Predict the 3D structure of the following.
Amino acid sequence: MEVANAINHGMDGIIVYVNQGKETIFYTAGWKNRENKIPTDPHALFKIASISKLYIAVAATKLIYDESLSLDNTLAELMPDLVGRIENAEKITLRMLLKHRSGIPNFTDQKDYPWSNHPKNNRETLALVLNKPADFAPDKKYRYSNTNYLLVGEILDETLGYSHHQYIKQKILTPLGLNDTYSLLSEVDLADVMSGYLVGNDADIKFNDYVTPGGSMIATVQDVGIFLRALNDGSLLMEEEQAIYSSIYSYEHTGLLPGYQSIAKYHKDMDAVVVQFVNTTGGNIWAKSKIVYNRIIKILRK
């Protein structure tokens, strides 16, 4: 299987989850922790990074459906303190934020973004792009920006009057029985988390916490797989909610943080959910990881 070969291409550890109907298979290779020679555990927790955006988009969908929010609400209406600090705040809508069509710069693209020590609050992160020119006029094009989902997380908190993390747990995680999914690294025992590595660096960097909405969640590969199937088969959202969700976001995602990369997709042609976790980043590992994933899909289709 391609999973075992992945370790020969510079990946420290890899977990692959394959679910087809009632059958679920896990494939693993390499290390959960390289220094202590702890083998990869298919049930280890992992930083799922931007796969978190799927959960936030679902939460937003539910609040839009119950009319707590509107897709046409502007950023100026929702966060008036940002008027004059984010260009076009009066024209940018919640829909544009969710669809990555706002034109707001991506904070992780800023040259002063501290990758080795992520900011510990949203406002500190947001400050990296305040008072900077827009990348483009609102709704004129698509450009992925983590800032969009930071703002959506803040909007959800303000609308709810409490943390959107709690709302996600109540409305998504608990109903699906996802007991191994968490909003923040601080909620879990670090011993249960797969170590993360950078190419050319022996240090385990799993302690480098990332708290920004849209990238902070921690989960097992199986929990991500169960969530993804529920999102795709219609069992997570009511029909009216599904229509809203389909208009704003995708049904698959990848994730990338230092030491952690992931791919989560549903393949309708073979009714398969395939989720891949790799605990190494840097160099050309991302490209190699995608090659491994695509080879696994090709094998499954035979």
